TrEMBL record:
The organism's place on the tree of life at top rank: Bacteria
Database matches in InterPro entries: Peptidase_S54_rhomboid_dom, Rhomboid-like_sf
Stated name of the protein: Peptidase S54 rhomboid domain-containing protein
Residues that span the membrane, as ranges: 71-92, 112-137, 149-168, 205-221, 227-245
Subcellular location, record wording: Membrane
One MF term in the entry's GO annotations: serine-type endopeptidase activity
Key words, A-Z: Membrane, Transmembrane, Transmembrane helix
Membrane topology: Multi-pass membrane protein
GO-annotated cellular components: membrane
Disulfide bond is among the record's keywords: no
Length: 314
């Protein structure tokens, strides 16, 4: 038989064990549901990534023998030569543009020479552009290999040519080079550069600003610009669509998952008001064994707490 006092002592501990068991069961269920969701998420992402990588691998195998090693040197060298020729004879630049009407008349070189048109006629700025293009291109080629880098650049070039044929507008290599930079910021997001030569900044922030610039350019541009942007970014989407899909799925899952903990706070110990009574004169406390009395007399004028000794002679 359990006494009331024993029951009062055991009940909090039984309640605590019961709540702890429920909490562990809940945590186990949450963990299993999280692992199950995460398993399906990873499986879906890996399937998409596998399909994408399989296509790229097949494309690489077919085009490996045509890959140009150190393609970046050819691009940068062609831009430097084109800049010097245009500086010597400005009308020479018109011979390099992607004009499909002239291509149909036999000027086949225009399908390739537009890739070398410099974005500026400034001697200082062209040095910066050449160095930047070389640095980004070599970083991508060292990371991917010559064949994959060739595929990335060739897809952008083919897409730009098709867009020019559909829209009737001639665009240069600006948007293709932008796609190279976006690929670089995706592969090396935490790489730091000096903005304006003295402000350190991670390239991922430059990538976000570049993405905003592309979005605004697409909204404000004509059909030729819209087509060139979509064409130049088609290779980027082909190479990184699975990556961004996986990132979006993980971010969505993390935003919906919150850590739930069950905390047990023991109740404060119960205090008996009778145990806290103390003598007004000497401070003796009833919980220490003193006999505290409530006295009312003409001298005190109101009920006052006294120990037995002071209750008799105060």
């Amino acid at each position: 038989m359990t006494t009331p006092l024993a029951f009062a002592v055991q009940k909090p501990f039984n309640l605590k064990r019961r709540l702890l068991a429920q909490g562990l069961s809940f945590a186990k269920q949450e963990s299993l549901s999280f692992l199950d969701f995460h398993k399906h998420t990873v499986t879906d992402c890996c399937n998409g990534l596998h399909m994408n990588l399989t296509f790229l691998t097949k494309l690489e195998k077919r085009l490996a023998k045509y890959a140009i090693p150190h393609l970046t040197y050819l691009i940068v060298g062609g831009m430097a030569v084109a800049f010097l020729l245009i500086a010597a004879k400005p009308s020479f630049g018109e011979m390099l543009t992607l004009n499909l009407h002239e291509v149909a008349r036999g000027q086949i070189w225009r399908l390739f020479t537009y890739l070398f048109i410099p974005p500026s006629d400034s001697h200082f700025f062209i040095l910066f552009v050449l160095y930047w293009t070389w640095w980004v291109g070599m970083s991508l080629e060292n990371e991917w290999g010559a064949c994959r880098f060739n595929c990335f650049y060739a897809l952008g070039m083919i897409g730009t040519t098709i867009a020019a044929a559909l829209t009737g507008g001639a665009e240069g290599n600006f948007w293709i080079n932008i796609s190279l930079f976006l690929a670089f910021t995706t592969l090396f997001p935490n790489y730091q550069v000096l903005l304006f030569f003295f402000i350190p900044i991670s390239v991922k922030w430059l990538g976000l600003m570049t993405g905003a610039f592309l979005f605004l350019s697409f909204l404000r541009g004509d059909w030729a610009t819209k087509g060139a942007i979509l064409a130049a970014l088609s290779d980027y989407l082909l190479f990184f669509a699975a990556y961004w899909w996986k990132y979006a799925k993980e971010w969505h899952h993390q935003s919906r998952t919150s850590t739930r903990t069950v905390s047990f706070t023991p109740p404060p110990p119960a205090t008996d008001p009778m145990e806290m009574r103390t003598c007004t004169l000497c401070g003796a406390c009833q919980r220490d064994g003193a006999d505290i009395r409530v006295c009312t007399c003409t001298k005190c004028g109101k009920p006052t707490l006294f120990c037995l000794e002071h209750a008799r002679n105060h």
